[in-house]
Amino acid sequence: MSNSLRNKTISGMIWTSFGKFGTMAIAFVSNIVLARLLTPSDYGCIGMLMIFIAVANTFIDGGFGSALIQKKKPTQEDYSTIFYWNLLLSIVLYGVLFFAAPFIAGFYKIPLLSSVLQVQGFVLIVNALSIIQANQLRKQMKFKKIASINLTASVLSVIITIILALFGWGVWALVAQQLLLSLFNMILFWSFSKWTPSLSFSKKSFKNLFGFGGFVLLSNLINTFCDNIHGVLIGKFFSPAIMGFYAQARKLEEVASTSISNVVNQVAYPVLAEYQNDNVVMVRMLRKFITSLAFLVFPLMMLLILVAEPVIVLVYSEKWIASVPYFQILCIAGIAICLQMINFQAVAAIGRSDILFKWTIVKRSLGLILNVGGLVCFGMYGLLFGGVLTAYTLYFINSYLVSKYVGYRIKAQLRDLFPIIITTLLSFII
Predict the structure, then answer these.
(1) Who's near 341: CB < 8 A, 6+ residues apart?
(2) 246-262 residue pLDDT tens
(3) What angle do CA 73, 77, 81 make, to 5 degrees?
(4) 270 contact partners, CB below 8 Å, separation of at least 6
């Protein structure tokens, strides 16, 4: 690796960590305040709708963001083409959600969800306006700017949300938080980025980028749907309050697992893509990323399992005590979740999105069987443990793909992780 890229990688890790954990700290503090002002049902209503917003957002980016980063030298025409495509698609999808909202509310048998989704769905259009600017900064590895934008947008949206909650807005305060966060991000990305779209749309550019991005889109759609399937099932078969307890438990668990892995993934993907034709360097870099993640996340997740109850009570208050067992089970899954995406990103970095799509169908089908089977046989806890089995299934399949197409063997990866696993387990037992 060249000194220039090494320095950019180190700087990227530092600034991405600063931005991610700064944003996480702001969200954490705001959640402590909001959890005392709002009810589990308020959070449950938002949690039931997240799958629709998440899937629509995945549709809008369409894998083109990954395609633009994976492509060595994207042109102004490439960027402009994808910008207009994203904007058009976001308008169409918002229209679909707007008119489908009453039927979705009928599915959950909660009339309020109709108007909530119709307002919340506008976030799709706002997000579409800044995707290109965000991806450009990421490709250029300007993580300091990205961190500054995310932190500023988070602070502004949180302050306004807390004020709205104090005035009794309830669930609408949470809707406003999502809209304001996206709006401030969009404004700041346009202010910090020098790029503006040109009046051009190239069918050739769209077709070339879709060759890679299309498979990424399909993989991401399936992954996003399956990652949020718990919200649909819990919302349908259990009360909004239980959905709220689950949503808060998952949000807290993701602070430790997903947030840390996202920091590494944001930097790892453009770095690995830079060396997509040199497997020796890729394996060396991938080993460093994976062992660093495990060293941070494994002990933290096990510690959180031990201190779950006092942490939940301290952070959210006694009324959220029912979240404790959900949180502990999610932490078990989080150990595998933190590593599965870095393996996924490595295969994407070498341009094998077609392979990722084929295997995504296989592993997510197994995951759905485990989740639904667990729900039918053992109820809420069966559903959650189905999620645990799914997380480890995804990790081993992604590791197999890395072994086959990148050259970092499963045995070698497990051997590198073994000292961390043993040390963590011994500490946990003691």
Answers:
(1) 261, 262, 265, 398
(2) 988 888 888 777 777 77
(3) 115
(4) 69, 138, 139, 141
Please tell me the predicted confidence (pLDDT) of residue 385. Answer: 93
DSSP 17-72: HHHHHHHHHHHHHHHHHHHHHS-HHHHHHHHHHHHHHHHHHHHHHTTHHHHHHHSS
Lowest mean pLDDT among 2-11, 151-160, 226-235, 297-306: 2-11
* Interatomic CA distance for residues 382 and 368, integer angstroms: 13
Name, in order, each residue with C-beta under 8 angstroms of 149's C-beta and a sequence gap of 6 or more: 185, 188, 189, 192
Q: Which of residues 254 and 68 earns the better pLDDT score?
A: 254
pTM above 0.85, yes or no: no
Token readout for 325 is 């067992």
Cβ(331)–Cβ(304) below 8 Å: yes
Residue 129 in 3-state DSSP? coil
DSSP string of 332-372, one letter each residue: HHHHHHHHHHHHHHHHHHTT-HHHHHHHHHHHHHHHHHHHH
User: What does the alpha-carbon distance between residue 178 and residue 163 come to, in Å, rounded to a whole number?
Assistant: 15
